[in-house]
Amino acid sequence: MKKLNLLAPFFLMLILFSTCSKDKQFERALHKKEGTWNIKNVAWQKVVQGSAGQSINLGTTSNAGTFSFDKDGSGSYSFTVDGSTYSENFNWTVSDEHVSIAKVSQSFDLSGNFSQLAVAISGTQQSKNTIELAGSQTNQYSSGPVTQQVITGTFLLERK
């Protein structure tokens, strides 16, 4: 029993090191080869709420654009669905073998108009050259009546 008590911390350290190592491998895979990943396909839903009412569109788009991951934890995406292009810079982190992408911003002008943005996307590496991400981009803005637009998607990325 005494030997088991002495070995328990060793096994705990081995498990923790293994998890950290997998996160580091995933991080390196994200920004390797200039960090650009093609969006092979995206299943999306777009909801717009404005003064004219609400509209909901959904679909699947192939070769929709790219996600790029930089070594410093920053990145960007640009994709087109339903005739609209979405492009943003973001910050990313890896924890427990999941990548998390986030951005929040807002701006106001002297006329009382505003713009707010929230991006929340996360996912996992499916294979050496494939990542699956799911999440949303929410825009709310006013230059008169308030309009809100939410684009939600599940992205299948392949290394470029």
Tell me about this structure.
Helix content is 19%, strand content 65%. The protein has an 8-stranded antiparallel beta barrel with strand order 1-2-3-4-5-6-7-8. It is α+β, with helices and mostly antiparallel strands and 160 residues long.
Helix-strand blueprint:
Blueprint: H1 2-31, E1 36-50, E2 53-69, E3 74-81, E4 84-95, E5 98-108, E6 114-127, E7 130-142, E8 146-159
Antiparallel strand pairs: 1-2, 1-8, 2-3, 3-4, 4-5, 5-6, 6-7, 7-8
Structural class estimated from helices and strands: alpha+beta
The overall pLDDT average reads 88
Task: Estimate what percentage of residues fall within beta strands.
Answer: over 45%
- The 3D shape can be described as globular
Distance between the termini: 53 Å
Succession of helices and strands: HEEEEEEEE
Please describe the biggest sheet, giving its number of strands, its sense, and whether it closes into a barrel. 8 strands, antiparallel, barrel
* Secondary structure tally, helices: 1
Fraction of helical residues: 10-25%
Uncertain runs are 11-19
Counting DSSP E segments of at least 2 residues, the number of strands comes to 8
Radius of gyration, rounded?
20 Å
Q: Give the neighbour order of strands across the main sheet.
A: 1-2-3-4-5-6-7-8
